[in-house]
Design goal:
By secondary structure, the chain is an all-alpha fold. It folds into two domains: 48 residues, no CATH class; 212 residues, MetI-like (MetI-like fold). Helices cover 74% and strands 0% of the residues. It starts with 5 loop residues before the first helix and ends with a helix.
């Protein structure tokens, strides 16, 4: 029988303290974004606004020019969606071949994929930039989509391979017996069964691409195709930072990724649990 003791009360108090500390940055983010320019610079970060002011949101959403926030959001959505599509398509196919073949080269390839995950991508920034610039893939969304597909493809293959190895071959064998080709069996039978893995790959890689600053700054610098993190940086000045506008952009940038997570969270949790189990 459960008994509410002093130790239980202490544990609950500790949980509440940890929760409030975890929510403190979000609280500062929201209250600062709702302050005027002057109040954001002069008042305490934890102090609530004397009057709610949405001017920071209005200004960033109506901004124009090369670092326009609405255009940056659109660019980020295009790059993130394109990279996710490429990672799901190429990663699932490559992982399926690696998982279903028993030849030596498939095991060697899988270990090479693990090495590619461990190695920091920044080591290849200079040669990647030189190569991308020579073929006209800098300063545009297509180049960024190809870049992120290449960088995150090992992670996608690893996640998919973990699931494919736990999936029985009976499904595709039954499809082939019914007259489906190996390609049809994969796309119509096997890949739909991998929906949890697809959700995991989409959310993990989408977060990385959406929040990226370094690669976007290098490969899109000086162009009109700016992503949201780079456009956000324009509000950070040398002497004065418009923190209310910066935090307003941060809140706006959180909405699409949170909406996507709420849409795919069931598959993500299933995929994460299945990966741990496998």
């Amino acid at each position: 029988m459960f008994r509410y003791t002093k130790l239980t009360a202490v544990r609950e108090a500790l949980v509440w303290v940890v929760t409030l500390l975890g929510l403190l940055p979000l609280y500062i983010l929201v209250v600062t974004a709702l302050k005027s320019d002057e109040e954001a610079l002069t008042s305490s970060p934890v102090a609530p606004p004397t009057s709610v002011d949405f001017s920071a949101f209005v200004e960033v959403l109506t901004s124009t020019g090369r670092n326009s926030i609405p255009m940056s959001i659109l660019n980020s959505v295009i790059i993130t969606a394109g990279a996710i599509f490429g990672l799901v398509l190429l990663g699932s196919v490559a992982a399926y071949v690696i998982s279903r073949r028993t030849r030596t080269w498939t095991n060697v390839t899988f270990y090479l994929v693990l090495i590619a995950i461990i190695l920091p991508a920044q080591l290849g920034t200079v040669p990647l930039y030189i190569g991308a610039r020579s073929v006209g893939l800098t300063g545009n969304a297509i180049g960024m989509i190809l870049l992120w597909t290449g960088i995150l493809l090992p992670l996608s293959i690893f996640l998919y391979a973990s699931f494919f190895r736990g999936l029985s071959t009976e499904y595709e064998e039954a499809a082939v017996i019914d007259g489906a080709s190996p390609t049809q069996a994969f796309f119509r039978v096997v890949l739909p069964l991998m929906a949890p893995a697809t959700g995991t790959v989409a959310i993990l890689t989408g977060l990385i691409v959406w929040n990226d600053f370094f690669n976007s700054l290098i490969f899109l610098g000086g162009s009109t195709t700016q992503t949201l993190p780079v456009a956000m940086y324009t509000y950070v000045g040398g002497l004065v930072s418009a923190w209310n506008k910066i935090f307003a952009v941060v809140i706006i940038s959180m909405i699409p990724i949170l909406a996507f997570y709420m849409f795919a969270q069931k598959k993500f949790i299933q995929g994460f649990a299945g990966g741990l189990k496998g």
